Amino acid sequence: MNEIESKIHGLVDDLMEDYSKGRVIDEIKMFEHPDKDAVVDILEKLRRIVYPGYFRNKNFKIYTVRNNISMMLEDVIYNLTKQIALVLKYVPEYTDFSAEETSAKAEELTFAFLEKIPKIREYIETDVQAFFDGDPAAYNTDEIIFSYPGIYAILTNRIAHELFLLGVPLIPRIMTEHAHSVTGIDIHPGTTIGKYFFIDHGTGIVIGETTVIGDNVKIYQGVTLGALSTRGGQSLRNKKRHPTIKDNVTIYSGASILGGDTVVGKNVVIGGNAFITTSVPDGAKVSVKSQELRFNYDSGHPVECKELDPEETWYYII
Length: 318
What we know:
The chain contains 8 helices and 16 strands. By secondary structure, the protein is of the alpha/beta class. It folds into 2 domains: 32-186, serine acetyltransferase, domain 1 (Orthogonal Bundle); 191-318, UDP N-Acetylglucosamine Acyltransferase, domain 1, CATH 2.160.10. The strands form 4 sheets. It has a 5-stranded parallel β-sheet. β15 and β16 (304-307) form a beta hairpin.
């Protein structure tokens, strides 16, 4: 045994000893946990099913749309059932199920979810239209479906949300965190979102689990719809921690709206960088008070300040 091999054997021995300490991170049950890659693959196949004419399935030859969708559905049914069966152990009511009972329940949940695809398609159609109507930089809807990170994040949420409502653990969060890693948009699968939802730019958006969003809502990059505090930890589970955003609201970049009791009324406009922890009445326009611009030319000129007119619409333009 050469020196390198000896060092490797020593490192392996050290690691094996470290693995034996009984901590959460020491668990070695790789075949009893969901496969993240498989979940992401299911998500991508579902995206092809939602948009049947946009994303080619390179695994199958396309003879007819019906045949192609049938093959993809069979693939999704098999793999989603398998992944759901693996995660049902996280739900107390299923912990005593036999393998056969767990598999049957997983299959039941899979078909219950797949029956929601027409609803998902109905909602995502309105989202695509909202993107096109609201963004002058969008030249056609194909551009939105193929390239906009916001529409990818929203579709992922709509898929994950239906699984979340069915009580499927872990898998919805894997899906939305995958979208988060790809787009920079973090939407918890528990978030309830109405029709015609438009995310412009999107990077840095965070939307918490118990957020409720109405129809025709538009938000920009850096917006947080979050909780006032998470110091309570697990004691806050299943409580309304995040805001409610009603219909026809626009929220500009950098705004933070926090708290489960916070309700933003209909037809409200929230200006950039606003920090809101109380409810906003219908029709209000919210902006940050007493902002001013400073211009420094050079050492021979004094600083010039200009206060911004709160009635101006400067913060509505991105």
